[in-house]
Amino acid sequence: MANTIREAPLTYRLASWYGIGLAGCYLLYGGVKIILGILDRNYSDLGNPIFFAIVGVILSGIVFGFIDARKWGWYGLIGVNGLIVISALIGYSEYLNLILLVLSGAAIYFLTAEPTRNHLASRQ
Question: Which of 67, 68, 108, 61 is nearest to 84 (CA)?
């Protein structure tokens, strides 16, 4: 896996690192909120953090599939980033949604760039 990243083109590496960062944010947010909810003995609001943690685990699997040059990992990252772009366009009035829109748009560009597609095709 390490050699795959080292010899990969820049667009592939940027898409991989963005996916790792996004999955890490979901896992970190969900994990911290779960721990704080347990420490505060506030068990009624644990549904949302558990959902974020589950999404983070699923997204981590998709990202590691992409790093291993699996076709389903590539499709999964395009789908997740497409959903982020659509949801950011719906709530475009907040600046944080605009930041997510730009980052996910750039990730979609990196995922569909020719060097990334060529690298994935050569690894199959």
Answer: 108
Going by C-alpha positions, the residue among 51, 58, 59 that lies closest to residue 81 is: 59
SS3 content of the chain, % helix, strand, coil (to 5): 85, 0, 15
In Å, what is the CA distance from 78 to each residue of 29, 39, 58? 22, 37, 14
The answer to whether the CB of 73 falls within 8 A of the CB of 64 is yes
Residue with tokens 């990252």: 77
DSSP element (H, E) containing 96:
helix 95-112
In the structure encoding, which two tokens stand for residue 71, read together? 């076709």
CA 123 remoteness from chain centre = 22
For the whole model, what pTM was predicted? 0.85
Mean per-residue pLDDT of the chain: 89
In this predicted model, what pLDDT tens digit does every residue of 23-56 receive, in sequence order? 999 999 999 999 998 898 877 888 889 999 999 9
* Cα gap 16→25, rounded to integer Å: 14
Closest CA to 50 of 66, 71, 26, 68: 26
What does the CA dihedral 84, 88, 90, 95 come to, rounded to 10 degrees? 170
